[in-house]
Amino acid sequence: MQWIDIHAIAIALEEAYPDVDVVNIRFTDLWQWVQALPGFNDDSARSNERILEAIQMAWLDERRG
Length: 65
What we know:
Helices cover 57% and strands 0% of the residues.
């Protein structure tokens, strides 16, 4: 998985952190959690705020079903 795999990351985050308040998440936490996901293998420097926002929104969509 890489930073561009927004939907896959969102699914993995929902499975790993089902009780997290996705709306009020800190991007520093999100950044760390994404990198800790099994199968994630990308350069941490390739992330940015726009990518993290997209992951957050995809995660919220995933949670809402």
